Request: fold
Amino acid sequence: MISIKQLTSWLLLASASFTATSTEVMKPTPLAQAEYPNILTGTYNSAITSPEKFLGFEVGQKTATPEQINTLVNIWAKESERASIIEYARTYEGRPLHYLIISSKEHVANIDTIKSNIDKLSTPDDLSNKQVKALIKETPATAWMAYSIHGNESSGADSSLALIYHLIASEDENVNALLNNVVVLVDPMMNPDGRARFTKQLQQNRSASANFDTQSLLHSGVWPFGRTNHYHFDLNRDFYYAVNPESRGRIKAINQWYPLLMIDGHEMGALDTFLFGPPREPINEHIAPSINQWSKVFASEQAAAFDKKSWPYYTGEWFENLYPGYSNYSEYKGSIHILYEQARTAEDGVRLENGQIRSYKKSVHHQFYSSMTNLTTLSNHREKIFTDFVKNRKNHVAKSSIYANKSFVVLPTKNQSRLNKFLDLMDLQGIEYYTNKTELKVRNATNQLGQKLNSTTIPAASIIIPNRQYDAPLIAAILEFDAKIKEQVILEERQKTLRDGSSVMYDATAWNLTMLYGLDALEVDQHLQSGLSKLAREETSSTIALENTIAYIVDGANDASVGYAARLLEQGVQVRALDRKGLFNEVEFSRGSIVVTVHDNKNSTQLLSIIETTAKDTGVQVRAISQGLGEEDLPDIGGEHFKLLKRPQIAMLTQTGISPYDYGHIWHMLDTELGVRHSHLSQELFNSMDLRSYNVLIIPGRWYGELSAGNVSAIDTWVKAGGTLIVTGNSTVQLAKTKDFTSTTLLADSFENMQDYNIALYKEWLAKQTSVSNQDVLANHVVADSIWYPWQNLDELKPMNKEQLTRWDAWTSQFMPSGALVGTRTDQKSWLTYGVNEILPVLIDNSPQLMSKRPASAIVRYGVLIDNPKAKERLIGWSTIPEGKDLYLRMSGLVWPEAAQRISNSAYLTRDRKGNGQVIMFANSPNFRGATKGTARLLLNAIVYGPGLGSNQAINL
Ligand SMILES: [Zn+2]
Reply:
């Protein structure tokens, strides 16, 4: 039974201080069913500290805290000649992340040679078959064993203690044999910040007797739960976005070892059993066939081992393998990857439907036993697995490879900070890239809208990534525009969608990196190599002061310019944004450039030093100018195009129903892109808050619940007084439905006057035209009796009435994507789109369809209009597509044609003026997983520029 000694003493101590009448908590009644024997059996070296001795309980009896795990693995690394330890990163909360190198004493002493052999075998192009054979013979296989990336899936990390101890202390012959063949790299606890939150919740929710009810707080945990890290990222979606220090350190560490086997120990629903690989379809086509074959071998040996114990298990079922951003990214680099999903058990055990109790120790045992079984399989097949690994690597750089004649091109951009982030990811994954000093003519290119370009020119200073590299599958998986999904899978998805609205997709169907980053790119069916050189990465920060400087300018195309502006504003500097392109001292500046004039800041004695420090902190290049007259008809320095910014005083709503992901990802953006002061407001206490302290309020998407009527009314008053309200994801629904709150509305609420929305759409399009409608009668003096109106063809085109639209919407809404990338067109006249390309890829799922017409404006709309002289005016869903245009939508992933029609022309981002303030709505999470850098820029602009550019400023008298 669980020990209540500690809890009792704590309670006694605590109660003594505030009441004299409390009694001790009772001893629990005995329950033999909940007992489970020690999982560490065998003869162990007494010189190694046993887990029980250090922890005070048998391994798996309770959940070890991150501090206990850290201390113990360090003790073991000191005590054992079979192990050494490496700290590979620190979390945001300052906790260390480690991996242990465990093998025979001889291998551990000889680890540098082993590593250098692995280096040679992973780049085998110059090796003869004989050399490969000889190297394989003398090199142990490597296995990366990683646990509990989700902090509340705790049994994996506890099992890692059993595994490490067993490997370093066991005197069993089998263990010795295993360690002669394998170097075991154990990453015991992948998310210590999440685990710390979870173990703290276990302590806080503990009662005197054990609790086996999965509905109870001990099992469910409380908001924001233990799954995520400090900023609420799901670290098991971060393996190629690498936004977090945990992932960055880990990827660097894993990539040095080319593990032939990678284990990732998780937990799933509490009443389930145990799942392990292999996955079912869809399986990403870039995983080598030999890896899929070996996965089956490992599975059959693991299944036989479970059968021996009569433990229930399954493979496949919900487990698909399309998205490459899980820990299984290692498969694309050559590992066999096995996922474990143990049914979640919290600390006390779980009462199952069959009446039995599954103890926590048993769960830990499943993970430990699986780990040993898989390591044994690796040891037994070491040479064959190694041979396949080398063969695959060799094939990836061969001229006959399927990857041989493909290159990816990132077109030049002035957004240096974003491009740097992209290149950092390439460096982290060991992907090689080049640049071209002169333009290149190429044939057979495809752009992100899927248009085939028979011949095109790649401008100088593009980034070029040939696919023909050792890591070809990973390159293809993250850079190719469209992941292939088998026809059979598409059919099954369609059937499931229609039958009961379920899906065969576990995660997104699109994740293309250049699209998520909002970087223009091309796929070229050619191995580009001539005329390329290695890119020299430059330091970007510099401030050049001139003798008669009148202003300092930072180019607005650069994402880092937003952080630069925010940090200057926080330090009391007067800052302006240039609202259109400018040209000063022969330097061209993009729309949205950040301007600090000497005149505005004539009382500041520290101006130059503040600018220099801020430029350094944000990595931007500052240019001093001495000429205020814009060349030709471009803006002059005192004119209306230099808008004064106002310091954002930022608050974000959180807790009670808010999605920890949306909240956390925005929080992360504020801390990593801006680093300025901001407040997090609890929704529970929101009623009593004084909102006058803020001019920006962010409401992230939510999991459940909504704002009270009182909250909505307080926000309404605050916006009218000049506040910038930013609402993301499904939190838009309540406010779009609230009467008189905003003129942005939802698709399903627009059917009554759909024609007005269609005409508003036409008007928006006409405002961008370079020819004048009704030009032919413009010079007439007599009023023309027959002129063109946008609605004139509607009778003939027969748009749907309300009843038909309702039916159409109900039908098409079944088919919304489970995560796909679609093209949007952005309003290049709005300050919200500073640094944003005209065509912006947006990640969409079953998100709200926003509708807007004046006074609200759609800043970003779904669909890109492309010339097609043959196209007639026609209806798509509720809207008309003008003559001479096609509407392009799908960029990557599965978008059913019905969904494409439903999505077309609705808004992703709207802005509505309200009193002296404004309401800005994003249909989806703009900083999804910290990876959608393209849409995140819109959010950064909204937060930092909103108070100055979108609301009426009061002058402090
Ligand atoms: Zn998990």
